[in-house]
Amino acid sequence: MPRGRVLQGQGKVNSYFPCSFVATLAQFCDKERFSAQHLYYHQFSLIMGLLLKVLLVGVVACVEINAHGYMISPAARNSAWRFGYDTPANYNDNELFCGGRQVQHSRNGGNCGVCGDPWHVSKPRPHERGGRFGRGVITASYTEGQVIPVTLYISANHKGYYEFRLCNNNNPLARETQECLNKQLLQLADGTGTRYYLDGNIRGKHTVYVQLSARLYCSHCVLQWKWVAENNWGICPDGQGRMGCGPQETFVNCADVRILRKGQRPFDSQNPGWKSYANTEQDYIPNAKESMPNVGCHSNI
């Protein structure tokens, strides 16, 4: 009799079921069960991988949103509302980055508005003279030839460098231009040149000292802060790919300031003749009989 298992039904032997077949069937079922479990875990891993990627993209996006900055002193047009000036509130005042890297370099050919607005926006752009935030409110007074402190707030450090420019813009009907600003690329007070390279460990407030020309004074000038970051990968001039090469994010702020002649007394722009701003060396309150100082706009450069 062949080896096998007797299947009984109603007391009768119906057939023989080979043990080898039973073993094969069990093995097949185990394999199918294993394959189903493997497929389940494979699909689960794919789903979790996709969710993780979405989460990482969200984290990166949040980091980029927070990686901005603005000029505190002199208070820029976009941030003056934070410090009590009668200017419109801009709750995105740390996002004057020319519309973003893609907008600046892909859509606008690398161009940016004079005060950080996207280049393609119709003039006057919001932060330029005559725009919503370009009210011409003076937020600091200095003296010709003075070393001035410029205080910035950086919410996340993208390294790169700063440059500071000044445009003599006494005509209330004229908008500042980049050509005007380029005429006065300011030197750093420590004599190291015109570019301040941002230390990667700096966060929050920090101050850069800039030298004003001894031959420039004005009743209304525009101080421009430009920050070219180094947070994107690109191709360097030597053909190698590195972080900080190629098109980068650019942040730009403008502040309205006054530069007095030496010996000239400061006065408040919003209430002339009453008091000076805190950025001047001494507060000045003229008496009622004293005439207003004759502030001209002049440059020998």
UniProtKB/TrEMBL annotation:
Residue ranges of every copy of the Chitin-binding type-4 domain listed in the record: 68-257
Matching InterPro entries: Cellulose/chitin-bd_N
Keywords: Membrane, Transmembrane, Transmembrane helix
TM helices/strands, residue ranges: 40-63
Highest taxon of the lineage: Eukaryota
Keyword Transmembrane found: yes
Keyword Transmembrane helix: yes
Protein name: Chitin-binding type-4 domain-containing protein
Organism per entry: Halocaridina rubra
